[in-house]
Write a structure and sequence with these properties.
By secondary structure, the protein is mainly α. Helices cover about 70% and strands about 0% of the residues.
Length: about 475
């Protein structure tokens, strides 16, 4: 990029975003070139020259432009959709940056946090001995749905750093696929599948490389039909986890989703795998279902039943993965009937009663309650009493407030459809005043829903009075 072009691109505030975007492109290009130079033994002189040019162009933008760094950052955030409207739910905000979270995770302490190098929990301030970050898929889905409802786009996930695919990586993939395709050596095939799992976990460019190879996913799926490997639970776990790793890369979501054998493998693993495999399979289906075109396809192939079974019977982490996948799939209106048919409402209400997965269960029920059939089933299965008990909870922590909000949304939907249940809610209101209290002290959405319930009851009373 010539100096005059750099200056021209920085001519006014409106073009600051373009300059910042160009700087980001140059940084990625420089990172890729440095990586190629450091990893390739036969790197050409052109790569060194390209790296030098990229560095000079980046220097021009950073030190010769007229836009302040704050102005550029503000324009970049606006361009990336980071400028949020008022009223963002507090539990969607990062405790570090106070911006809407992109990739919420859970620390060993249970707190949501980002991998920013901190050694302490942001809430408890305790030094952490375990730095494992567990993706909080359901929170990301809830953020995504909230942004869609407010006409906003979700910024891309930060999983992919990008990177030039090197000759070394291409050779490695070719070698692995050759081993997987060789049916004469089962131990070698098993080792190749394990190696593919590890490489797709560690390396973003390798995930992209596998997606670009039209035969790679088919080879991976076919290994589970090889005699001697078709009943091997470890091979199944490695293959499913590789699919999960691949699905993180944005362009792979369509590639994997369009491969019926790959989706069938994940669904079969949901039914027959060990708990780790089932959990990873649910997480992979969640990841794939971020693409709208995959949502209905996944459910049509039979994913909902084993997901609901995992939600009911799985380990705590497996239940969370299943819940995340169900939530994402049920964003599509077409899939809600299938979830109801598989008994998801009863499972969710039981989870709330058992205090095993309250937050996630309420979020899914609130999503389902947009459909009358789901509302009726929630009401018939004791949902009113369950929601009222949550509304009456005196705990005012952020999590509890969010749960009350979802409970109020579910109660509102029930009261709009069923006069009998409206009377039940009104009787509780007369005893405890819990709905009025929520209408005054809840979150903005909870206040609206609680006020709506009270208004509906008042109209009902006026109607009864006039009819007499």
């Amino acid at each position: 990029m010539a100096n005059s072009e750099a200056v021209e691109s920085l001519a006014g505030p409106a073009s600051a975003a373009a300059a910042t975007a160009r700087a980001e492109e140059l940084k990625k290009e420089l990172w890729r070139l440095v990586r190629e130079i450091s990893e390739s033994e036969d790197c050409s002189v052109e790569s060194y020259e390209d790296a030098s040019r990229a560095l000079d162009a980046l220097k021009d933008i950073r030190f010769r432009g007229s836009v302040s760094s704050k102005e550029a950052l503000a324009c970049q955030r606006k361009a990336e959709g980071k400028m949020e409207p008022a009223g963002v739910p507090k539990h969607f905000l990062c405790p570090i940056s106070s911006e809407t979270m992109r990739d919420p995770v859970i620390l060993a302490s249970g707190q949501e946090w980002f991998s920013s190098g901190n050694r302490t929990c942001p809430q408890t301030q305790q030094v952490l001995s375990d730095f494992t970050l567990t993706p909080n898929h359901l929170v990301r889905s809830m953020i995504s749905q909230w942004r869609i409802e407010h006409g906003l786009t979700l910024p891309p996930q930060d999983h992919e750093q990008g990177g030039l695919i090197t000759r070394k990586e291409r050779n490695a993939l070719r070698r692995i696929l050759d081993k997987i395709s060789s049916s004469s050596n089962i131990p070698e095939q098993k080792q190749a599948v394990r190696e593919l799992r590890l490489l797709t976990k560690q390396n973003g460019s390798f995930r992209a490389l596998v997606g670009e190879n039209p035969d790679a996913i088919s080879h991976l799926v076919s290994v589970l039909s090889v005699p001697g490997l078709n009943c091997d639970l470890q091979v199944q776990e490695d293959a499913v986890t590789t699919m999960l790793n691949l699905s993180i890369h944005e362009s792979n979501k369509k590639i994997v989703g369009d491969n019926p054998q790959a989706v069938a493998l994940l669904i079969e693993a949901l039914r027959t795998g060990n708990m780790e495999t089932r959990s990873n399979s649910a997480a992979a289906l969640f990841s794939l279902s971020a693409l709208e075109s995959n949502k209905v396809k996944i459910v049509k192939m039979g994913a909902m039943k084993p997901l609901v079974e995992l939600l009911e019977q799985g380990s705590h982490s497996a239940k969370k993965d299943a819940g995340s996948a169900i939530f994402n799939l049920c964003i599509s209106h077409e899939n809600r009937a299938g979830a109801l048919m598989e008994g998801v409402v009863g499972v969710l209400l039981k989870s709330i009663a058992d205090q095993s997965l309250v937050d996630e269960s309420l979020a899914i029920l609130a999503l389902l309650s947009r459909d009358q059939e789901a509302v009726e089933e929630i009401a018939e299965n004791g949902g009113v009493a369950s929601m009222l008990s949550l509304v009456k909870d005196s705990d005012r922590t952020r999590n509890k407030q969010n749960n009350k909000e979802n409970a109020a949304a579910i109660l509102f939907a029930i009261c709009m459809h069923d006069r009998t249940k409206l009377r039940e809610v009104a009787e509780e209101e007369e005893k405890t005043g819990s709905i009025s209290h929520l209408a005054e002290n809840g979150t903005p959405r909870a206040r609206r829903k609680a006020a709506g319930i009270l208004e509906k009851w008042k109209k009902r009373l006026r109607s009864t009075h006039y009819s007499c």
